Amino acid sequence: QALSLPIVVIVHGNQDNNAKATVLWDNAFSEMDRVPFVVAERVPWEKMCDTLNLKFMAEVQTTKGLLKEHYFFLAQKIFNDHSASFEDFQSRSVSWAQFNKEILPGRGFTFWQWFDAVLDLTKRCLKSYWSDRLIMGFISKQYVCKLLSKQPEGTFLLRFSDSELGGVTIAHLIRGQDGSSQVENIQPFSAKDLSIRSLGDRIRDLGQLRNLYPNIPKDQAFGSHYNSEWMAAG
């Protein structure tokens, strides 16, 4: 007899996401000398951060992991708490239910389903952009508004969609003639969209986008990601 790594048997592809969540939780949080199949129902948020980071880097195959501000956004999302500080979250524990059972407020999916879809999108279409730190990614709409509101018109950044699974959206600043500012979020791009036309080329196409936050001209930031055929023609 020998104990194997955890496996989950599924009968349909739509069970794949839940199966991955079960295997991840078991791999990350079970004790070495446990009774078979026994695993903690709650784990420290700090350990969850390490697990999500390792998973993200392994899946995307990047050396650029999650940052402190990413963990803060993910904590706000999984705990549905926008008043706590980063330090407050560090002392909390997260449950299996919060991870992959409870539906996120106002959404039709769990935290893990959302995170796994982001993983898949980044792995398939955004690896080089993420590795070049061109995607802020894990950031709330409210914080985007705070960052962009004092910037020149046309300043933009990239964030993962809150409302759609596996989508990346562009938030950019528009200024009115009276000097008032408004942040507009472009309809999220899915993996299917980005397989038709790359993110770099879409950004180049959008004339209202000028500088990647805080102040990098978009051609300088994304030039190496533009389609080489267009570059030759241009």
From TrEMBL:
Localization of this protein: Cytoplasm; Nucleus
Superkingdom, natural source: Eukaryota
GO MF term list: DNA binding; DNA-binding transcription factor activity
Annotated GO biological process: cell surface receptor signaling pathway
Keywords from the UniProt entry: Activator, Cytoplasm, DNA-binding, Nucleus, Phosphoprotein, SH2 domain, Transcription, Transcription regulation
SH2 domain ranges (all copies): 130-213
Main location: cytoplasm
Cellular component, GO annotation: cytoplasm; nucleus
InterPro entries: p53-like_TF_DNA-bd_sf, SH2, SH2_dom_sf, STAT, STAT_linker
Keyword Transmembrane helix listed: no
Keyword ATP-binding appears in the UniProt entry: no
Record-linked Pfam families: SH2, STAT_linker
Record family assignment: Belongs to the transcription factor STAT family.
Name by which UniProt lists this protein: STAT6 protein
The species this protein was found in: Psilopogon haemacephalus (coppersmith barbet)
